[in-house]
Design goal:
Length: 493
């Protein structure tokens, strides 16, 4: 496990977008920052750009009032590390410079991003959230749509198109055929011919609202849209329904402003899928703001695993550390079936299982499952969520697989996770996961037996309850139980 860098220093990003003006303050693990304050105002700076070419007075005033508050709040919170950026509206408006000069009067230092810089920042957020991501990042904002290719931890070839949510109603008013032609011409003019058969990483509030509605329509067992995946064919089917305004049983977490843009965002998604022909869609809650944060980090912190950073940061509040997870993983390794890609997931699952033991006994299983299934873990896909949930479930001694887990991971993977959870249970109940207990005991499979080796000082800890845990793990692995002393002699009660 790579060392996890924790930080109590607060960092802030102010994003002056075409639709919303937002401030987010973060702290916690640098590789997987935690949001401690998130405020936005729907200033709609780009609302009249298509007609007048300028930011209207009302929108400018709304934005400046919000930015004045943000500046004051940052002073109260004593946030020194602040990055303020402006995107399409300020970039395209004839009075954009005047607007940004007014922002500077609050003590902020807004940086105007070019379309390519905006696209690459969003792509960096996707790369940070999904290590190993390859495909196309598509970020839908109020004023523009950015597309950029990502692979091998880098982004290339970013373009920006005037297809933001504030522009879409007018574009669609000309009819669906004309709208489709407009999107096609925009992509052709930009020379965009990439993405066929690759994942499409979806960024942006309106598209994230679409993901929430899709999850609700599919009765999906996870309700965090980050990491939600859809085959391109299924995404196209749902987007066509939503584009027609077929929004029955609306997810209550979708705000009224996002709900109003959802049909237009869905219509654009239909066109993007039709033109790019991706293999699947992967929704990302990380984009421009997180990309800007990630770009500030030293290379050694960027290289950390975000899933482990997320879980370690969360578990630290329960006084369970990454080192605890490493020690637990080493002790249980001889009896845990593990695929090459499982190592960090098993460590993170064990860490969460230990953290669950610090909660109220009658809430442990339910709370740990909620953490695994509903809390946002950066770098953890839905398959990993299923295995993590099954691990913490088995850590409570339960091996019957809940139906919702089977929609996330295969039975083979869930069976493997059950073994992890039962091994965690045996370890913590025998040793307390203390350095002394771990050093004076071990477990391994030998000649059809699950052999638990105990130093004499550990023998009194092998209680009937621990013996039951030993047998449960042995039965799951298809082995017989045996307890030995360090010389290899079998111990008999």
């Amino acid at each position: 496990m790579i060392g996890i860098s924790q930080s109590s220093e607060k960092r802030a990003i102010i994003d002056i977008g075409s639709n919303t003006v937002r401030m987010v303050v973060y702290n916690g693990p640098q590789r997987a920052p935690v949001v401690i304050l998130n405020e936005k105002v729907n200033a709609r700076l780009g609302r009249d750009l298509g007609k007048t070419g300028a930011i209207n007075e009302k929108s400018m005033k709304t934005a400046l009032v919000a930015l004045s508050r943000f500046a004051g709040m940052l002073r109260l919170l004593d946030v020194k590390d602040v990055e303020c950026v402006a995107t399409a509206a300020a970039r395209d408006a004839s009075n954009g410079k005047t607007f940004l000069d007014a922002v500077r009067e609050f003590g902020l230092s807004p940086r105007l991003l070019s379309g390519e810089e905006e696209a690459r920042a969003s792509a960096t957020g996707v790369i940070a959230a999904f290590p190993g991501a390859h495909g196309i990042a598509a970020d839908l904002g109020g004023g523009s749509l950015e597309l950029v290719e990502i692979a091998d931890g880098r982004s290339t070839g970013g373009i920006t198109l005037p297809l933001g949510t504030l522009r879409l109603p007018d574009l669609r008013a000309a009819g669906e055929e004309k709208f489709s032609e407009t999107v096609k011409k925009g992509l052709d003019k930009a020379g965009w011919d990439r993405g066929r058969g690759q994942p499409l990483y979806i960024v942006g509030g309106s598209w994230r609202a679409l993901a929430l509605q899709a999850m609700r329509a599919l009765d999906f067992p996870v309700d965090d849209p980050h990491g939600f995946e859809l085959p391109a064919s299924e995404a196209l089917r749902l987007a066509r329904i939503f584009a027609r305004g077929k929004l029955n049983d609306v997810d209550p977490r979708i705000s009224a402003s996002r709900l109003a843009t959802l049909p237009d965002a869905a219509a654009l998604m239909v066109e993007v899928i039709a033109r790019l022909k991706p293999s699947k869609l992967v929704f990302s809650s990380w984009g421009l703001r997180e990309g800007l944060l990630h770009a500030q980090l030293p290379a050694e912190i960027q290289a950390q695993d975000p899933m482990l950073a997320s879980v370690a940061g969360f578990s630290a509040s329960a006084r369970v550390t990454a080192e605890d997870a490493m020690a637990l993983a080493r002790w249980t390794a001889p009896v845990c079936r593990e695929e090459p890609q499982d190592r960090q997931l098993r460590q993170a699952s064990g860490l969460l299982a230990l953290a669950a033991m610090r909660t109220e006994p009658n809430l442990r299983t339910e709370e740990a499952m909620t953490w695994a299934l509903r809390k946002r873990w950066i770098g953890l896909d839905m398959h990993g969520r299923g295995m993590m949930a099954m691990t913490v479930f088995a850590n409570s001694g339960k091996t019957e697989v809940p139906e919702q887990f089977t929609r996330l991971a295969s039975q083979e993977d869930l069976d493997r996770a059950i073994g992890w959870g039962l091994a965690v249970r045996l370890c913590r109940r025998l040793t307390g996961c203390t350095a002394h207990g771990l050093a004076r005991s071990s477990v391994r499979g030998v000649d059809g037996k699950l052999v638990l080796t105990l130093d004499p000082s550990m023998r009194p800890l092998y209680s009937p309850g621990v013996a039951k845990d030993h047998k449960a793990l042995a039965d799951w692995l298809g082995l017989e139980c045996e307890v030995r002393d360090p010389s290899g002699m079998a111990l008999v009660d």
